[in-house]
Amino acid sequence: MPPTRRRTGNPSTANQSTLSFGSNARVTKPTASTPTSQKSKTLKSAPSVVPEAHKPDKTQPSNDVAEPQQLPVTPAKPSEPHTAELVVRGQAKVETKEQPWGEEDKKALKVSEGDLVRYWKGEEEGRRAPRVHQEELGLHEKILRHFDLSSQYGPCIGIARIKRWRRANMLNLNPPLEVLAVLLKHEDDVKQRAYMDELMS
């Protein structure tokens, strides 16, 4: 059993008041109030400064309508690719050019456009609702975005699509051969960076 404390009458705390949170115990901060007449005087006394560019020209006759100032238009420079985009392009170049072609690559090159259409129709049959937000996309981009969002093949951030496909194949996750076909046949038309990666950066 813990020892009990004895209350001793401390003279400094005996006279201490208790806190009250009601409306009677309201404490306000003192403020220095300035009369409104002083404020209006300080506002009126500020001089109006007009830049030289906006002053009317005295030599020309005055017109009621001011002509808008013509500014030179500089052509827009194309934006440089993001650092992540450059890294992913390097990964894709290594995967497609320097890696030896295996059996999967040869099978993927034999996949026709009709096979891609049949694959996509099969994927769409399993869905309950149509993909309204992807109506303007082409077939190849739809297949690749579906692959990007399929989490069973591993993360898609910071890795080229073809490298992700090869990694999933190496781990026996059975990635769709149609994705590799799109990546190999149309490598100039499709982006190697996953759509989710673009959104996150």
TrEMBL record:
Residues passing through the membrane, by range: none
GO cellular component, as recorded: delta DNA polymerase complex
Biased composition (Basic and acidic residues): 92-104
GO MF annotation: an example: DNA-directed DNA polymerase activity
InterPro entries assigned to the protein according to its UniProt record, in alphabetical order: DNA_pol_delta_4
Gene Ontology biological process terms, A to Z: DNA synthesis involved in DNA repair; DNA-templated DNA replication
Region (Disordered): 1-104
Record-given protein name: Putative DNA polymerase delta subunit 4
